[in-house]
Hints:
Strand order of the largest sheet of chain A: 1-2-4-3-5-6
Largest sheet of chain A: 6 strands, mixed
Number of helices of chain A: 8
Strand content of chain A: 15-25%
Structural class of chain A: alpha/beta
Helix content of chain A: 25-40%
Number of domains of chain A: 2
CATH architecture of the largest domain in chain A: 3-Layer(aba) Sandwich
CATH class of the largest domain in chain A: Alpha Beta
Shape of chain A: globular
Largest interface: A-B, 57 and 57 residues
Distance between the termini of chain A: 39 Å
Oligomer: homodimer
Amino acid sequence: MRKIINDPEAFVDEMIEGIVLAHPELVKTPTDDPRILVRADAPVAGKVGIVTGGGSGHLPLFKGYVGTGLASGVAIGNVFSSPSAKQCFEATKAVNGGAGVLYLYGNYGGDVLNFDLAADMADLEGISTETVLGCDDVASQPRERARDRRGVAGIFFAFKAAGAAAERGDSLAEVAAVAQDIVDHTATMGIGLSPTIFPVTGQASFELPEGEMEVGIGIHGEPGIHRGELESADAIVDRLVDPLVTDLSLTEGDRVAVLVNGLGSTPLEELYIMYRRVNQVLSERKISVEKVYVGEYATSLEMAGASISLLALNDDRKALLDAPAQSPFFQEG
Amino acid sequence: MRKIINDPEAFVDEMIEGIVLAHPELVKTPTDDPRILVRADAPVAGKVGIVTGGGSGHLPLFKGYVGTGLASGVAIGNVFSSPSAKQCFEATKAVNGGAGVLYLYGNYGGDVLNFDLAADMADLEGISTETVLGCDDVASQPRERARDRRGVAGIFFAFKAAGAAAERGDSLAEVAAVAQDIVDHTATMGIGLSPTIFPVTGQASFELPEGEMEVGIGIHGEPGIHRGELESADAIVDRLVDPLVTDLSLTEGDRVAVLVNGLGSTPLEELYIMYRRVNQVLSERKISVEKVYVGEYATSLEMAGASISLLALNDDRKALLDAPAQSPFFQEG
């Protein structure tokens, strides 16, 4: 292993402790459980809260999107493991400002199970909740079953837009509708060049010989749709972007936001080489790029690889992306 | 190799093209030479310009610090190679707003040679220049020869402070004095766990068996001061922070800014585990942490490892760090 860690069992708790020590003006752990992290001013009276959650190992996902104009709180699981229902519920209580709470997280079985249980607990305490699942990985299901897809990096767009809607005072139903609208218009495809190494076991999340690539890989190493020899950056981008354009039925004159996301150890230089080609391909199709994000937005620890997400834009979605936001990992405006 | 690239010889130019396509509102390439990148509104009349430069492969260093309240322009070399004197000069002309230009870059022989030649060319054209070298790597020279040290991640503090000074209208001499003051109060030490792989040759920058670490390593793989078995995060942080505290003669009641910087493929989770210990160690010494930066600020492509930088703070330095800034990779305020 090439990890800078202490006791592997303390990996998650020590990481959270570091985040809170580094950014006390932005986030806090309001209960005895260090796995519940919320924005420093939570709960915000009269505003809809947004709770996310999921396994660790994906920074800045999910903890990094807790802040103003973004998610209000997060329940944090072990590496690639769901938080408990109780943790999801405690996070709900901690951000509840009386206007209800949106659950916005990636579509994985354990997370769904525990957030659904938390919703029942919240209901018993009189806290209204709604749920929207991030499900943007086009490699995992066809368009007809889009809401069964796995959630990957594109959930960033939903945090940004739903967070902006909550901040401006939208109702719970309205914030949920914004989040669902974003999810329905977001598509992502990734490529992996090397696996994640689990801190506790030292094992790799999957096997992939050096010099090969897996197209459509999930952020936990779920199998993709093509494995073969590593190709050029331009060829890889074409493999990723074409299915996204088709999936979102984008045509000449359409507008998009683009996220080129690094999965961990792929250098920023390579992400910009990829963006160059994304811009070329979309320009050729006369699709207008109105927002660009390049960097690490959802990782798999040290996995080498990247993903490309497209969000089809209209004026409403664009305005929500442009709204101010601030978290330890993201700032807009 | 596990790189997402096209022709390796086009690595740098395609990366710059991607940056400009992604952030046209922030940066531009004002000449026929794509290796000269300046802020979108350069030159700014009446304000001091700041030109940096150096080899590629260190994103967000150096290109990432071109923006408002930061550097005004950059001359970009090949991977780990200096830009030419002509490129440094062209960048100088492109940012010259009539108040002179500060050269602020890391202390490496090729860069010094070419920037000094550029200063001569600028002088012939009536453009005043001053030079301040980033030289914060305590492993490379003892304190008595601090200005002979290699420049590493701590130059970020100098960009931030000198950029703020230029933005508020300081004279060239004043901006240079701010940069030198920051450099003189900054100390950095790094640790490497794996090498950089050069895009063109596919060769590693140095050899390091898995499970070993090199303390004090430079950002091009220059040898450090200790090689041995990989230790715990806490033990590593202690090895890095103690020499920094000594070097800066920090004692009880002193104030610092901290930068925990990832060198490439070390996950953000591990950087926060490191920050947790940095905070502990400084708290025990009753040194007050007033600014914290955790993330990738100066990398070596996909090198695994991290560095810790400390800047001794006073009110002036703190105010300059707090001033607004915006670039493709950094935003404050």
